[in-house]
Amino acid sequence: IFALIVFSSLLTDGYQNKTDSSQLRCVLNSNNVACSFAVGAGFLALLSCLAFLALDAHEGHIACTRFRTAFQLLDFILAVLWAGTWFLGFCFLANQWHRSPPKQFLLGNSSAKASVAFAFFSVPIWIFQAYLAFQDLRNDAPVPYKRSLDEGGVVLTTLSPPSAASPINTPTTGPNSVSYASSALSPYLTTAKVPRLVMMPDN
């Protein structure tokens, strides 16, 4: 909206002629570059806003994450560029308006003031737009893929502590008895070894 006000105000009353001449001149210190810059920048800014508005409306239908990330990055870059462009444009337009002779043109003073004022108002608007684009870009950043143990085929089970009545923890009474707290070695201790050599009985 601000870009529309900037270039439309200068298109309507930004070019005036003096009483002694029929040649149209810019009301900003008779500098046609200033009016051309404001009109061109405002028109291009309006087109870019309409293009991104149309893309924002169809953002939910975009399935490709790379295209969405590129779109958000382009939105952030253009917002930063437009903020800098309008800041420089405001300084240039305000300087030319300050140098303009008073009552040089019969009309166009209000249009020149409106273009300078809304060029200044465009700077914080584009900075805020860049901030919103940066927030969207940071929130939609891809999360690094972490492989879980379940995807690797590893099943984790919760080991409950053995009860007091378990035969593993039941102590064996006796002076020479040995008690083991873990059952990891129990198969090797309880399995009887088969002798490799068998003695043949005498006939």
From TrEMBL:
InterPro entries: Marvel (IPR008253), Synaptogyrin (IPR016579)
PANTHER family associated with the record: SYNAPTOGYRIN (PTHR10838), SYNAPTOGYRIN-4 (PTHR10838:SF22)
All copies of domain MARVEL, residue ranges: 1-138
Membrane topology: Multi-pass membrane protein
Main location: membrane
Keywords: Membrane, Transmembrane, Transmembrane helix
Similarity remark: Belongs to the synaptogyrin family.
Organism field: Myotis lucifugus
PROSITE patterns on file: MARVEL
Transmembrane segments: 37-55, 76-95, 115-134
This protein's GO CC annotations: neuromuscular junction; synaptic vesicle membrane
The protein, known as: Synaptogyrin 4
A Pfam family per the record: MARVEL
Subcellular location: Membrane
